[in-house]
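Contributing new records

If you add data, match the layout below exactly. Sequence lines come first and carry their own label; structure lines follow with theirs. Keep one chain per record. Anything else will be rejected by the validation script.
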Amino acid sequence: MARTVKHFSLHRIAGMELRVVADVEAGVLPVIQVEEEVVRGYVQQGHWPHRWVTLFVLRDLQPLARQLRSRASLPPGGAAALDHRPVVNVYDLADLASCHIFVNQQAMARESYWDDLQAMRGLLAHEHAHPLAENETSRASRGLQIELLLDSQDKIRRLLTLLVDKLCLYAPRELGANEVTIRSGFGEALLYLDRYNMANASRGVAGREDLRRQLQQEVAQGSLTPAAADLLLLIGDLRGYLDLALEVAPFYRTSRESDAQELEAVLQKAIFPHLEPQVAWAYAALREQYIVLRANLTLSEFQVWGDAVMGILAQALAEKGLALHYRWLVVGDK
C-alpha cells in the first residue's frame, strides 16, 4: 500500500498478537480499544482460530480493492463495492492462523459510525464472526454459481445477478456471521447497529421517488417502456430492502424474537407501505427460508434450498412480467 503509515503498534491479547497499521491520525485509538474488546470476547468463547490479527485503519479501501480485484470469492458487488463497506475481514479458509481487518474511515464517517463505539463494536464483532461461522452450508454456497437465463437488457441482468448472489449464494455466510455474533455475546451491539440501519432504511425511502421520476422521464423520452420502468422500480425495491431479512432472521434463529419483532415493526410501519406490494411478501418468505437454513447442507441440498429462494424472487418478478430462468453451475471451492 503506497501510503504514509501514521500509526503502527503491536498488542498482546490472550497470547495472540494484534498488529495495527493506520494511514489516518485522529480516531485510531478508540478503534483499537474496541477491537481489543471484541477479540477478548471471542477468545473467551474458546473457538478462536487466529494467532495474528492485523487491523488496518485506512481513509478508504482502494489499496485493498486493487489487491482483491482478481479474487472470485468476494461478496456481491466485488472489489468495486469496497468503497461502501465500513469494515472488511480478509482471511484464508485454508489457514486461519491470521486474519486482516480493514476499517474504512470514510465509509464509517459517511454512515456516522466513526464516533459511535457501540456501532463500531457491532461491525467489528460481525466481521470477526465470518471465519468462525464457516460450515458445510457456507462451503456449499462457495462451490456454486447461478447463471441467469434472461432475454432482458444488460442493466436488468446485472441488477438481478447482484440480487441473486446476495440473497441466495452469499446469504449463508451473512446469516452465519450474524448468528455467531449474537451467540458470542455481541447481540446488543448487533441489535444497536441494526436499529441504526433500519432508521437509515426508513430515511432512504424518500430517495425512491427520485428513481421513480427518473424512470418516468426515460419513459417520456422513449428510451424505456412503461413495463420496463415498472420492473426496474420493483428490482430497486427488492435490492434495497430484502437483504434486511439477513439481519432480522438471526435474531429469530437465536430465540431473540422480541428483538426481531422490534426491527420488523420498523419495516411494517415505515418502509413496506412505500414500496411495491410484492416486497413485503417476498421479505416474509425469505425470512422463513433464512430461519430454517441448516448449517450442514451438502451441495445438492443447498441447491434445493436455493431453488426455494429463487422461487420467491421469481414469483415477485413474475408480477411485473419477468420470467426468472436460471441454472446452477458447480465451480468447486473458491
